[in-house]
Amino acid sequence: MFSMPLSLFSEQIINGIVLGSMYALVASGLTLIWGTMRMLNFAHGEFYMIGGYVFFLLMSSLGIPSYLSAPLAIAAVFVAGIAVQRLAVHPLLGRPQWEFSTLVATLGVSIFLQNAALHIWGERFKTVPYFISGVVDVFGMRLSYQRLLILAVAIGTMLAMWYVLRRTRFGMALRATAMDRDAAMLYGVNVYQVFMLTFGIAAALAGIAATMLSSINSISPWMGAPLMLKGFVVVVLGGLGSFPGAILGGIIIGIVETLGVIAWSSQWREVISFTVLILILWFRPWGLFGVKEEA
Amino acid sequence: MADQKTTTNQNSLFVIIGVAVVLALVPLVTQEAYLLHICILALLFGALASSWNLINGYAGIFTFGHQAFFGLGAYGSALMSMKLGLSPWVTMWVAGIMSAALGLVISLPVLRIRSIPHIAIVTLAFAEIVRIVCSNLTSLTRGELGLWGIPPYTSFSLPFIGDATFDAAHKVAYFYVVILLWLLVVGATYWILRNRFGFGLRAIRDSQIAAESLGVHLTYYKTLVFGFSSFLAGILGAFYAHYVLILTPSSALGIDIMIQIVAMTLIGGIGRLLGPTIGAFILTFGLEWLRGFGEYRLLIYGVLLVLIVMFLPKGLASMRLGFLRTRAAKKLPT
After folding, report:
1. How far apart are CA A7 and CA A26, in angstroms?
2. CA torsion, ordered B23, B26, B28, B34, to nearest 10 deg
3. What is the pLDDT of residues A227-268, one digit of tens each?
4. Which ipTM did the prediction report?
5. Could you give the CA distance from residue A168 to residue A31 in angstroms, rounded to a whole number?
6. From CA B127, how far away is CA A7, in angstroms rounded?
7. Which of B240, B238, B232 is nearest to B183 (CA)?
8. Which residues of A touch B299 (CB under 8 A)?
9. Which of chain B's ends, N or C, has fewer CB atoms near its CB within 10 Å?
10. Which residues of chain B make contact with A270, given a CB cutoff of 8 A?
């Protein structure tokens, strides 16, 4: 690792950032749901999986070009997110112990969706081709166009999210709900609609990650679980409910993993990121960007 | 209110003993291997979920990594009996102590955290580390290929009763061992709840600040309950190893075990003495019954989980007296 030429080293850093930007997309969905609804969504990985499969179906089975099928797949995941929220989460909100029961309900949804995918598409791994092939040479670093595209999409999505959250009426309603649900309700915010759209947007963020990553990773019924776990690590690391925390946390985990894999081997990848998480929380229990909570 | 609680507690002692006696009579009626196997699994998971209920239901610390202690007990006891040639009767307790030690280690970062999701994710990350380490140390554990050749419990003979034979074909002796282990876990929970320690735990669950201000030593209580619950999970894992005789990291350390524990506890009734056991019997027998649905089994299972939390939010253990307790429950939710 330390005898590596500088160009290769910086190439790996960029690869880590690309990987981390996708973790950030998945994680920001989780952090959005936590921030507004105070619940953990254990079906988040399955939104990622649905995105991957719909993308695959549109592209490989119907032959729709990738620049059209990607937005369609993301829209499908948005609808799926709203459906899950309405059917499995909404009836539980506000009941006693609902932070716990929503967790189990989303676990149930996750088991259901995984097995539904297994039933419909089988256990064979599926792949989709790259959006664009080829590599570009920047200062001696070899970067593939696909990875650069991923990075661009991630940055674009983050900017769009920032705009939605900070500059639109819906974003204001969302932030008001996150701050104080009852007060937001009193001021005429339809919080249940906000919850629904939050779930849809969070799912769509996972869908974006799915369309971007499915050409690099493969598509299978179990593709979601590891990424969701990584997403949780990232949000807890960055501070639950914090949007910049999710982005920075994602990039940190991405870089740490890419460098860790070179130093040791890929089978220890998760061990490295989970250890980083436990150590950081030991000293900063509220995460990097989170707010220190009383009680 | 306090009186009512104590009587419920005394009643539940009779219920525990009654359940154990009824179960102990089962082999006299039928010795069908399949039925006994399902009963053994249900009791094992009932005991495991009860040991988790101790941390989560009573102390209110929502951990999501209980499978680490179960799996460590399983692998620890299996490897000790294989490599050192010790009797599984000895190694299961050593494995329990190993799990307890690990539980004390992981309780240290958890002590500093109070928010539910943070504790859940930290314990889950920790359990995943244990699982990955176990599947990567192939020279010791054979990884996902599976650790086989684990010795079963050493058979012995009891005066007046006869031989206790432990092998794949004889389930009866295993059945009695798992009943004893279940009694150990549920009995220990019952005993703890009636003690000062148990009142401290429930005080922590209801409000950490209030408990601390009344002199409950949070660190001491939390580490102790963590260590004890991990100890119980380790022993149960060791039983599992010497019962199924083959271990893989995903079967003994996978997140599926934790999902089962959560589902069982929630379906039976969280923070109730017999809740996890009731949930374990319903889920284990239910999943067997769903085998009739073939590949749709897990699809239905997922839907059932959602429906149960929706329509039976307090678990099945609360159903019987639910309508009588609603008034009291409104005033003082337990």
Report:
1. 29
2. -140
3. 888 898 888 888 877 888 888 889 988 998 888 888 777 778
4. 0.81
5. 19
6. 37
7. B232
8. 112, 115-116, 119
9. N
10. 128-129, 132
- The shortest C-alpha distance from B249 to chain A (Å) reads 14
A167: tokens are: 């500059």
| A256, amino acid identity | V
Question: In the numeric block, which tokens belong to residue B127?
Answer: 């359990």
User: pLDDT by residue (tens digit) across A76-109?
Assistant: 999 999 999 999 888 888 777 777 788 888 988 9
Distance CA B144, CA B249 (A): 6
User: What does B146-193 look like in DSSP terms, one character per residue?
Assistant: -EE-PPPPPPEEETTTEEE--BTTB-HHHHHHHHHHHHHHHHHHHHHH
**Structural domain boundaries in chain B:** 23-254
Q: How far is B179 from chain A (nearest CA, A)?
A: 28
DSSP assignment letter at A294: P
Residue B205 contacts residue B60 (beta carbons within 8 Å): yes
- Of the candidates B78, B223, B220, B89, the one whose C-alpha atom is nearest the C-alpha of residue B156 is B89
Q: How far apart are CA A81 and CA A100, in angstroms?
A: 19
Of A40, A105, A282, the CB nearest to B109: A282
More confident residue, A150 or A266: A150
Dihedral sign from CA coordinates of A128, A134, A139, A141? positive
